[in-house]
Specification:
Distance between the termini: 100 Å
Number of helices: 1
Number of strands: 7
Radius of gyration: 25 Å
Order of helices and strands: HEEEEEEE
Strand content: 25-35%
Shape: flat
CATH architecture of one domain: Sandwich
Low-confidence stretches: 25-31
């Protein structure tokens, strides 16, 4: 006996069910990126800001390579009985890929009110340079 499902809504319902089951997983993966970052750029600097409330500077590790800035740390698990726990705990790592060379000697990092700011000055080699034009008399 052969059953033809071509007119039945059952296969479409199964497809919709799988879509619904996978959709929250994708959203949760996006939310799991910790710490949240803002990355901005102007003519002279690349600035990375990370929200890391409750962590001290000595609990963070910043590493600068030729092509990336790596931010590592660990948020300790606070002991207690939780009814809801939305702040992530555990080890974290974020990698910011840099598209321009950075002057390593002038990099500055500050931590104020739970916001880590890393200012990465661009190397002089990549900054635009104005060229003076001499006017020849003749």
């Amino acid at each position: 006996m052969v059953i033809d499902f071509s007119f039945s809504p059952f296969p479409r319902q199964i497809d919709r069910l799988f879509e619904e089951l996978t959709r929250p997983f994708v959203i949760n993966q996006r939310r799991m990126l910790y710490p949240p970052l803002n990355i901005s750029e102007d003519a002279d600097n690349i600035t990375v800001r990370a929200e890391i409330p409750g962590l001290a500077m000595d609990e963070l590790e910043l590493t600068l390579s030729n092509k990336s800035l790596v931010l590592k740390g660990e948020r300790k698990v606070e002991q207690g009985k939780y009814f809801r726990q939305e702040r992530p705990t555990g080890a974290f790592q974020r990698i910011v890929n840099l598209n321009v060379p950075v002057d390593r000697e002038k990099v500055k990092a500050t931590l104020v009110s739970g916001v880590l700011s890393v200012v990465l000055p661009k190397s002089e080699d990549v900054k635009p340079k104005k060229i003076a034009i001499d006017v020849a008399k003749g």
